[in-house]
Amino acid sequence: SIPNIPHDSVPDGENEDFVYQIEWYDENGMLKETTSWKPKRVIGNQKLKIIEMTTVPNIVDYKIIISTKNN
Asked: I want to staple 7 with a disulfide (CB 3.0 to 4.6 A). Which of 42, 48, 55, 65 is the partner?
């Protein structure tokens, strides 16, 4: 499935920069692949879809790790 990441804490018109990476796991819960950190920007209450695919076989789960700057 493709996760929607709502960002309701950013006031209208303000930008929020962040980076994300995805960890891919097999049926035994073992980490099999991690993407590089990728930058994104959310403007105001914009909703965002992150679409990523892996070529590693037998992947059954994933985690999206998001990091934002502390001001």
From this structure: 42
